[in-house]
Amino acid sequence: MILVVQRAARAAVRVEGETVGAVGRGLLVLAAVEAGDGEDQARWCARKVAELRIFPDEHDRMNRSVREVGGGVLAVSQFTLVGDLRKGTRPSFSRAAPPEEARGLFERFVGFLRAEGLTVATGRFQARMEVELVNEGPVTLILRRPPSGSGGGEGGGSA
Question: What's the whole-model pTM score?
Fold first, then answer.
């Protein structure tokens, strides 16, 4: 799985003009499922998102998690994160999980976030979405948990 995690003052996602998910202070998480990903990646990523200490404490140091500040998470599936740009100028999405597989694992990821005690809103899978974000900081992180056996090692060197 590949995630882009952004600290948000507020974030929302609309489909055909209708707001389908929104949060105030919290996180916007763009998530892509790679071929070969499974529950282990989804669970690990959810736990990491819940525990990331990227909100300021009383000394203005990034030392609090989204849970500690009472924030929400807006999770949006975004398969384009797996786009491979090494050759040519048109991205290859050959590493993306098939849509139905990705949908199921994305939903498990959202379930794991909720199991961590977080309030989670979502976009709409496979819809053309408009995502609005007020990035606080700005703070943006990339988190990757490669499929088992992909040679990426524990945590893929990120986190």
Answer: 0.90
